[in-house]
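Narrative of activities, Objective 1.

The group set out to show that a structural description can be obtained from nothing but a protein's sequence at a throughput compatible with the screening campaign. Below is one input-output pair from the validation batch, recorded exactly as produced.
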Amino acid sequence: MVDIDGVISLFGLGGAGTGGGIDSSTRPDGIFHSIDGIPHFLSSVATTHLLTLVEDFDLVWCSGWEEKAEEYLPHLLGLPSGLPFLRFERGQGAGSSMGGHWKLAAIDAYAGPRPLAWIDDAFDASCHAWAEERSAPTLLVQSEPEHGLTSKEAQQLTEWARALAVI
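Output recorded for this entry:
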């Protein structure tokens, strides 16, 4: 399960003294795109890691972007097209899905009894409780929204998937 904002679309870039703007000398590799009139800084590093993770995972968009992920990201980033995406119930808001995070019901329904890795920048306590209670192997991978999916998280995901493959 791949979130977009804070994983591929970075935010919070720029450090002290930059006025909250992006300092091009320390900015991660990527490019700005306007998606439905909203500027997004899409990480080239995250894209490279996702292309590698396709070897061990069936990627699924797990974002409020829903079908917009498939509409925009394969073309803009050179990612495979045709990836499934989750739909979320509208109007529930944070904290009302399965007693916690708004994505849990859709993730649980889609994943069923299969192993699951979920990359997101906004886990809460309900996500961790849900992951611990699942009967299937479950890995939550936290990204930092200003860095997104880096080699650290990609390595964690790859090692986890390959360890499952030998079990």
